[in-house]
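QA checklist item 7 of 12: single-chain prediction sanity check.
[x] sequence parsed
[x] length recorded as 244
[x] structure emitted
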Amino acid sequence: MSGNQPQGNPSARRSVRSFVLRKGRLTPAQKQALDRLWPRYGIDSSSTLLDLEAVFGCIAPLTVEIGFGNGDALAELAQLTPQEHFIGIEVHPPGIGHLLRLLESRQLENVRVASGDAVGFIEERLADAAVAGFRVWFPDPWPKKRHHKRRLIQPGFVQLLVKKLQPGGVIHLATDWAPYAEHMLEVLSAESGLRNLSGSDDFCERPDWRPLTRFECRGERLGHETRDLLFEKREEFHPDSRQT
């Protein structure tokens, strides 16, 4: 990257906590997109709360997608719902570069991109009760037992999401790793601020509007079954009422 990149450019980020940064080849087109388009779509590093009206130019329901991969699903949903706003958080520069190219080619102005640790971004940059929905689709399942502590979906993280959700806001998770799905269900079901939108108090059918992701298609070829979880923040819930 050139030396005059804005602070927060994903090519310069090294420290992550909620994900492991794996090496990936950055194509010339992706590198060019990061250089040229980050000032247009990127959210630079800071510890101050975002002014969402200033970021997007107006106020609209905000969905935050954590770990958007190559961004195909995020771009598709943003194109289908131009009246809504989206922030995508990702640590892998190739995926960010790919999404930036999609945003430009489709002329999407309702998406902004953050690079780095999702936990810190959500905690520091998003105001309480500012988010209409969080999406975490196909996070790393960390299948080995000794690595379970690295899983993103843990009670403390879910409590943080609930704090940032508006009443009636939804957390939507999806995974094709059955043990992780059970873990997710257990964690979300134990959170008193959430209500399971499944009629059977377990998993939901994939909503028609959720695009099939690359990970999901690969998992289906391997015989994996995808499970969706949709939990809504209770209208009457207040964080101070949480039982310990």
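[x] summary fact logged: Residues 68 and 167 are 24 Å apart (CA to CA).
[ ] second reviewer sign-off
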